[in-house]
Amino acid sequence: MNTILEYSHVTKQFGSMHALYDVNFTIEPGHIIGLLGPNGSGKTTMIKLACGLLVPTSGSLTVCGEPVGPGSKARISYLPDKNYLSEWMKVSRIIDLFHDFYDNFDRNKSYEMLKRLNINPEQKLKTLSKGTREKVQLILVMSRNADLYLLDEPIGGVDPAARDYILQTILTNYNENGSILISTHLISDVEQVLDQIIFLKNGSISLQSSVDDIRENHQKSVDELFREVFQC
Amino acid sequence: MLGKLLKKDFSSTCRFFIPLLGGYTVAAVLGKILFEIVLSQSQVPYNSTFFDGITIFSIFYLIICIVYLIACYVMTSVFIVYDFYKTMVSDHGYLTHTLPVKTSTLIWSKTLMSAFWHILVNLIIGLSFLLLFVGHLKDVPVMDIFYSFVHAIDFKLNSYSFYTVVNGILELFNGPLMFFACIAIGQLWKNHRIMGAVLSYIGMYVLIQIISTIVLVITGNSSIFTGYMIYATLFSLITTVLFFLVTNYILSNKLNLE
Questions:
Q1: A158-174 per-residue burial string, b: 16 or more CB within 10 A, e: under 16
Q2: Domain A5-229, CATH 3.40.50.300 — does that match?
């Protein structure tokens, strides 16, 4: 099986502070992995390194065997934890933009999802509520037939009802031959959809395991184990 | 991918430049109408109230037009820099740098778009002056003015027109790329990145002025253009390439979008 994402001795420093330290792990196809850790543990840094938004201080990263670059970016569908779209643009225009740049973008799928959510494609982003804008971003990301979906806090800023919708959207739209890495600290909400987890503590991986192994070996849910490991 | 990027950058810069240049065009047409009214009034029997009123209004209008003209130049550079900052190293950089394109292509797109708008701004401003004199060109000794200018600066058309054209083209790229390089250098700062970019710009500007002055002193004895023109073209070419390489290196190898 081909490795989709590989971190090899990746360290990232901001000044003298280590955001990540000697991180090693791989992601194989067909998994939904939870990247779990408290605030400031390095989750976003880890994702941004894979997207090429940060450059590692040392170590190397590969996506489907190639270094981070235009080729890897074509394979990764990334949902950042902030609004990265121009607010003056209409939703339809943003869809055109994604369709222009990403060969694996399915325009029909995005319009179907918009219709299901009653979002008018002719509306400008600035006229939409914060929650709806986040849904538009998720629709754009999940309309791609990518090898790897990197979702940074996809349910962080929305109400519990919307969380269910977002998780449902992710599960029903991703490329099943690819993998999803979901970063979050809202574990109980995502636990049901994960099959693997990575615990990140102070920039290092403290545990990488399948969810089944955790339940079997620790006799605990992921949420319970997380609270135990990251107890303040 | 460059074509797609140019399309994207064109649509995002259009929403600023179309109102700016559209407004200037309307102002230029109104200026022409006013100019013709003033000219026609100067040929009819003197009507003191009307003539004084329209003259005062014309002077005010002329001042507004000059301010608008300067604003067009200033705002063109300001918006080009703002657009680069916003889409390359700010929140929108999250989209820009996750597009499957090379960093060098991103920089090319921004630079070409900047050159396009600068050419259009110059063209529209040039046409606005032409519009002002349409119908009166026979009264203006255009060729006399041109020859006086050429004589005054000791400009030899055959020898130096090449350097003038090349310099003009290079300046279209050199100016924005210097801004882009400074923004990129500012990204190397851990904090206060905008301040880093501004200080880089000041430092670079001072350095370029010092080098230019030294060379002008060395080469400026025979005439203004002898030697200096060649130096200026070479210097512009070298700095343009350097600015591009610095921007590309930092955004490719040192990018830290926080």
A1: beeebbebbbebbeebb
A2: yes
